[in-house]
Write a structure and sequence with these properties.
4-stranded antiparallel sheet; 5-stranded antiparallel sheet; alpha+beta; 2 helices
Length: about 140
């Protein structure tokens, strides 16, 4: 019985806990992934939804052809990104910048539009691969 309790304690002591965090200012929005758990998060899947387009486990720039549109105009923006690939890890206590979008014009309506047209889901597990977890917006 004590052996089972020890194994359970070991598994819990390395469990990851990934959360997303959004920062906004006048013309920039940044989305971070942060592992607040005690162990590394082993990535099992990463899905992005850009408007109506869904991309599963991208291995190159998924944002290159994304047209963020509001009303009748296309909105100009620059971006930096990180792709969490399958079997990569996010270490405990690490904060990773998933996406940073900077608009040419300033305005909360642009940031709100971005949040309406961008969604993601990351699936991960612990180093024991015993249970899957998900995080996203």
């Amino acid at each position: 019985m004590q052996l089972k309790a020890g194994r359970k304690h070991n598994r819990l002591s390395v469990r990851p806990f990934v959360i997303s965090h959004i920062e906004r200012d006048k013309n920039t929005i940044i989305i971070y992934l942060r592992n607040d758990g005690l162990g590394p998060a082993l990535i099992k899947g990463f899905d992005i939804k850009l408007g109506n387009k869904e991309i599963v486990n991208p291995n190159n720039d998924p944002y290159k052809n994304w047209v963020l549109s509001g009303g009748r105009e296309n909105i100009t923006f620059e971006y930096e990104y990180f792709i969490p690939t399958v079997n990569s890890t996010i270490k405990a206590n690490d904060k990773v910048q998933l996406l940073k979008v900077t608009f040419v014009k300033e305005g909360d309506e642009l940031l709100d539009l971005f949040e309406e047209q961008f969604n993601f889901r990351i699936t991960y597990t612990s180093m024991y691969e015993d249970k899957s977890f998900a995080c996203g917006i």
